[in-house]
Amino acid sequence: MNNFTDYNIKQIQNILNKLGFYNYSIDGKIGKYTINAIKKFQKKFNLKISGEIDDKTKIKLDKLSHGYVYYTIKKGDTLYNIAEKFKTKTWRILIANNNINPFLLPVGVQIIIPLDFSIVPTNIPYTYDIMKNNIYALSKRYPFMKYESIGKSIDGRELYKIIVGKGSNNVIYNGSHHGNEWITSLLLMKWIEVFLEVYSRKGSIRGYNLEDIFNYATISIVPMVNPDGVELVINGIKNIKTNTDKLIKWNNGNEFSNWKANINGVDLNRNYNAGWKKYKQLEKEWGINGPGPYLYSGSAPESESESRSMANLTRNIVTRLVLAYHSQGEEIFWQYGNLQPDISIKIGKEFAEVSGYNLASESLQQSLAGYKDWFIQDYKKPGYTIEVGKGINPLPIEQFNKIYDDNEELLLIASII
């Protein structure tokens, strides 16, 4: 396993943990507990028992990491027996295959068997590839969830939009405008997963009936606006195809944990047409002369495919409000000049109350050329930047549970307020 990085090993440990083979620290190290877990996995699935991640073991792990398998119904099968065979729940099978009659299973028909664990991992850094697999897996588990691409990043990664709900009240949420704020993508994806599962069982979260929300609102979520930047921060330059030499030069080295920009060196949340020219003057004062890890606003508003795609999506939806998730500070920004509508502060106070975050005013550096600023300016509707967590970006994964708890209700009420 010499070719595996610490992050690769964390992914393997996480999958083994979900499957019940590994109950120790997700530490990215190959020790005796990890080797024993691999051997148990190999024995269970009739693979060569070596404790090594050989090709067949990796293929099997990859398939199971998606959280579902396919099964062809045989004569004599019952829903209960199939669930027992795969150690899952009958309700999971019914939701994923909503066209089958549980009392008259059609022999020879292939169905989806969701495995009995959650899809979105909350104990490892959240990459684009994991998010992509999670989106596909969730759409298999919950066929009423829709998703599509709204464009591509500079390096060719899809900019996914997930749609939850079917009502007339449209809202837009997004995360990870900045590469080292990937924890916001994880927040949105985990919230989606929890919402879908509870809705599918006709349940409630924090007293909110999810069937009512689903019928009232359409929530369009772009969980990762800057997938190239996220990839650069978590895995470094190795999976980047564009501007590789320039990136190292702009960054003054190969350590990209502080990187916020896209891989053109443009800060995407300074690339919208709201005070962009004024911000350009500030760049000169700050000594920013071109592409870099942060703060450079590009050659023109929406010069970047990522910000342009986000703006075009917003133009194409008659939207009640938008949430742009960032880290860190546990603050909610709600103003742009004096252009925000009167209702913005009332909504902002409700967001602050349910999250425990501070309703704040931005500094000059924070308040120009951002997505929220542009939305308020052009549409005169409520827009919010939500800064989650506290500390230095990228925030440690250990903060995730608190971040999720702080924001779960906010994300619910934003769709109906």
Walk me through the structure.
There is one protein chain. By secondary structure, the chain is of the alpha/beta class. It has three domains: 1-65, Muramoyl-pentapeptide Carboxypeptidase, domain 1 (Orthogonal Bundle); 68-114, Membrane-bound Lytic Murein Transglycosylase D, Chain A (Roll); 118-417, 3-Layer(aba) Sandwich (Aminopeptidase), CATH 3.40.630. Helix content is 40%, strand content 15%. Strand 10 (331-333), helix 13 and strand 11 (358-360) form a beta-alpha-beta unit.
Short structural summary:
The chain has 417 residues and is of the alpha/beta class.
What distinguishing features does this structure have?
417 residues; alpha/beta; Muramoyl-pentapeptide Carboxypeptidase, domain 1; Membrane-bound Lytic Murein Transglycosylase D, Chain A; Aminopeptidase; eight-stranded mixed β-sheet; two-stranded antiparallel sheet; 15 helices
CATH architecture of the largest domain: 3-Layer(aba) Sandwich
Strands ordered across the widest β-sheet:
3-4-8-5-9-12-10-11
CATH topology of the largest domain: Aminopeptidase
Within CATH, the superfamily of the largest domain carries the name Zn peptidases
CATH class assignment of the largest domain: Alpha Beta
